[in-house]
Amino acid sequence: MRVEVRVMPKAGVLDPQGKAIAQALARLGYGGVADVRAGKVFRIEVDAKEPGAAREAGARMAETLLSNPVIEDYEVEVKG
Amino acid sequence: MSATLVKPRVAVVLFPGSNCDTDAVEAVEHAIEADAHLVRHDEKELGDVDLVVLPGGFAYGDYLRAGAMARFSPAMDAVARFAAKGGSVLGICNGFQVLCEAGLLPGAMLKNANLRFVHRDVFLRVETKRTPFTLTLTKGEVLRMPIAHGEGNWTVGRRDFEEMLANDQIVFRYVDPSTGEATAGANPNGSLDNVAGVCNVKGNVVGLMPHPERASEEILGNVDGAKLFKSFASSLLGMGTRVSV
Predict the structure, then answer these.
(1) In chain B, which residues have their Cβ closer than 8 Å to the Cβ of A17?
(2) Taking CB atoms and an 8 Å limit, are B190 and A68 in contact across chains?
(3) How many CB atoms lie within 10 A of CB B44?
(4) Strands across the sheet with B51-54, in order?
(5) What's the mean pLDDT in B74-87?
(6) Which of B126, B125, B146, B118 is nearest to B216 (CA)?
(7) pLDDT value at position B239?
(8) CA-CA distance, B233 to B65, in Å (whole number)?
(9) Taking CB atoms and an 8 Å limit, are B68 and A65 in contact across chains?
(10) Structural domains of chain B in order of their starting residue, each with its CATH number
(11) Which domain holds residue A14?
């Protein structure tokens, strides 16, 4: 089963990468970009029989390694 | 003053990707005549030591986040046990990042605010004498040391930061050497409140982004960094915490 873990900088935490990307977009002529936040996506194949177990496995991985709770939030989605 | 009465025993943890490990060994041998050895990341024991140094570099390639993988190495379990027993731990640059990821120090690192790898000398103000590494320094004293990092923008949640201030856990701040003030211009990476180094509640675990080991010998043109190691050696005379894990 495939689990997708999305890790994003917490609201209010400075995101230097997102800021630089927003500036680059503006330089390229994309008007109206108010803000960019840059995160990470992990696509993980897990041995799980049902979506609940897969989701739980993804959440555990996000909490122990994939995200840092001081600066990041995460979301888990089971892709089936 | 003669050399220390106790010859300090120092373990420097070597992660795959560490690159300041032998610098740290050399610095403590030179500054405090320490008996220093390297401990590989996959070793489960540190031996009988007085001090553990987590050196600079790019442990595990800094993949994911700086220090994120290194914290799970067997040697870090030993470091956590050593710290819990009151052993002195110093994390330098990447070592500081590892200590934050491991939860042995509060906070986390963001990429430098200007997104650049910054390498130059900075000036640090000593904010507290309560750690073994600042015990013999003066509060307000300004030290010069080099930095070299891309991810040294230390931050922590507002409530945790207030708790840290109340607990006297800020050890060094970046300052303007002409005024001794922690100005925005003196901050090389955008860290919260110009913080350059912090300690745990107990004060025995310290991390800092600047490199004291690169400023510990006359031949390097700067010996301000040696002051931290000399302070540590003096702390042994008072406490004598030789911890075995």
Answers:
(1) 111, 115
(2) no
(3) 11
(4) B35-40, B9-14, B51-54, B88-92, B205-208, B195-199, B170-174, B118-126, B142-149
(5) 97
(6) B146
(7) 55
(8) 33
(9) yes
(10) 9-244 (3.40.50.880)
(11) 2-78
Q: Does residue B240 carry a pLDDT above 60?
A: no
The answer to whether the Cβ–Cβ distance between B155 and A20 falls below 8 Å is: no
pLDDT at B198 over 80: yes
ipTM score assigned to the predicted complex: 0.88
Q: What is the pLDDT of residues B139-178, one digit of tens each?
A: 999 999 999 999 999 999 999 999 999 999 999 999 999 9
Contacts (Cβ under 8 Å, ≥6 apart) of B152: B93, B109, B112, B118, B188, B189, B191, B209
pLDDT at A31: 87
Is B213 marked active-site?
yes
pLDDT at residue A59 above 90?
A: yes
The label of the residue with tokens 């122990």 reads A64
CA distance A12 to chain B (A): 10
Catalytic residue among B93, B127, B149, B199: B93
| Number of domain units in chain A | 1
B93 is catalytic: yes
What single letter denotes the amino acid at residue B34? A
Q: The CATH number of the domain where A60 resides is what? A: 3.30.1280.10
Identify the pLDDT of residue B237: 84
pLDDT computed for residue B243 by the predictor: 54
- Tell me the shortest Cα–Cα distance from B112 to chain A, in angstroms: 7
